[in-house]
Amino acid sequence: MRGSTLLAVLLVATIAAADESYILDDSVGLGRRFDGIGGLSGGGATSRLLVSYPQVQRNQILDFLFKPKFGASLDILKVEIGGDAQSTDGTESSHMHTATDENYQRGYEWWLMTEAKKRNPDIKLYGLSWAYPAWVGQNSGSPYTYPEITAGYITKWIQGAKKYYNLTIDYVGIWNERPYNKTYIKTLRKVLDSSGLYHVEIVAADGSFGPISNDMIADKELNASVSIVGAHYPGTHSDPAALSTKKQLWASEDYSTFNDDVGAGCWARILNQNYVNGNMTRDGLMTAIEPWSGHYEVMGPIWISAHTTQFSQPGYYYLKHNSGAGHLENGGSYVTLMDSQTKEFTIVIETMSHDHSKCIRPPLPPYTVREQNATFLLQGSLAKVTQLSRWNSYLSFDSGNSSYFEKDIPVKVEGGQFNIFLPVDSVVTLSTLSGQQKGSYDNIPQPKVFPVPYNDNFNSYPIYSEAKYFADQSGVFEIAKAEDASHGNVMRQVVSTRPITWCDDANQPFSIIGNVTWQTTHLKVSVMLETATTCAFVAAKVDEGGCHSASATGVFFWICSEGYWNVTSDLAHTETLSHGSYDIKAGQWYALDIYAKDDIATVSIDGHEEASVYTKSKVKAGYAGIGTGGYYYAQFDDFYLFEATYF
Q1: What's the confidence (pLDDT) of residue 400?
Q2: pLDDT digits (tens, 9 = 90+) for 212-237
Q3: Where are the alpha helices (DSSP H) in 239-280?
Q4: Residue 246: which of 28, 27, 37, 33 has the closest Cα?
Q5: Cα dist. 15→9, 121, 373, 417, 419 in Å?
Q6: Where does the pLDDT of residue 253 fall: very low under 50, low under 70, confident under 90, or very high at 90 and above?
Q7: Distance of alpha carbon 58 from alpha carbon 356, whole angstroms
Q8: Cα–chain-centroid distance for residue 587?
Q9: What is the DSSP string of 276-293?
Q10: What is the pTM of this model?
């Protein structure tokens, strides 16, 4: 209703006093091809909890992301090619832990890509590595030492997607935000072509525009190998060298911010201005962190995406600058997207103010936006249009009552022009197209805390999958069949050599569960060490995950196959709080119990209390966890969480 009211009240004023006029004209030629707006499932855990949602809510979330003309209606899905190492928020499993191990049942990205394709068969798929298994570099620490091996590894992932899931991978990157290697890029192109994968386009280099663009200009073979120049967080600006390559330019990772109104403002601004300022034609939304409750939140960024995605498709073209794209005189921007065949077109206008559209990165220089009247003059094939459908979003930061993606009454075009009033912090889409909708579902479950008590014997999962609610932080813990049939399925740490890392990974593989604010934690886990001279642990109050996980502190209860146990205050095992001996042997199961409350931790093995330890108040709260003392095999079963209270 707000959009209709504004139009009715302000129409007389806007006709009487239009500030500036802007020409929209396709007769001067079209601008760059629009390649779509995408979402990213990568960085180790951005979609980790989604797969564990109840089916009803999981399908609803997927609809909001991928279903055409319903929610965000994403055009591209970019996924991490798992590399067994930490990649921001967790680790993702590789399809090849070793050179002789090839398995396409691991991880959740296959499932996510399949679900996206079910909803939108035309969605494009893009794979990118954050890390690599050690064997790819032959333990050199680099994926570029043996480029043919690395190219073969990536090619197998692409072939596996097709063979096992009938998924066509459209784009592949090099190494996320890490140095590229010209020889490797050219080798990858050759290996893809020799495997019949001519259609797979290489995106390089998922860092900044300048270096790769200059190298492409100087190296014809490199230039021919790369289809798209992709940069991360370019701040809506490209680079002269990038433009000189004559390649498509992408913000191949963008929108680093929060899922709130300011995040929506950030997204609205950069979606338009990436093209207006930088000639970039692709960008890449929703909170779903409680699979146990089924609760999720559909926030502004979904609907800001809809302003573009529900009115366009990859393969449309932007109109040229000053003929359909540009800055508004009083702040903000506009772009026009056109189907070159049918001449259907869409105008997207944004007037986001500086303080209400900041992204986390990069910094945003100061600028001013004022409410304004704008007249648009339609020329060329656009001149014949007499009416445009209208959808509005108004972001209200004072009242907190923002209105997103609301259908308004159509805009009349008379004599090839129309006038529109644009308040500050608004997004308006005007289009010749129809059939869009603001999708919705009723009765989204209310949020709930993690269910305690909680237990899992891991017998309900397929082999090679991951247990729900756990998030691996280094190494990979996957479901496996226990050699001891009485234990059925177990969680097994399966990475035996430190990978080629993206973060400074911990040397101790571990997985966490629960909440970082758990103050009191009581859990019991069965543990089996597979080989001699190895250790494993259960932990409470683990305070770090992600790229800082190597510095995690908490209460760690270790057993070692050399016949001893200890309690440490950190993952790195630098401070021992207590220790003792116990008849621990490889190949046998032991039930470890840890009860951490206030400054005391009580630990037991097989029901025998070993110690009650004063933890020196080093850590007040954190996750529960399991792990190993190094990159070797160990098994975990019968997870019981008896108590967990919040700080």
Answers
A1: 75
A2: 999 999 999 999 999 999 988 776 67
A3: 240-244, 261-278
A4: 33
A5: 12, 44, 9, 11, 7
A6: low
A7: 31
A8: 39
A9: HHH---EE---EEEETTT
A10: 0.93
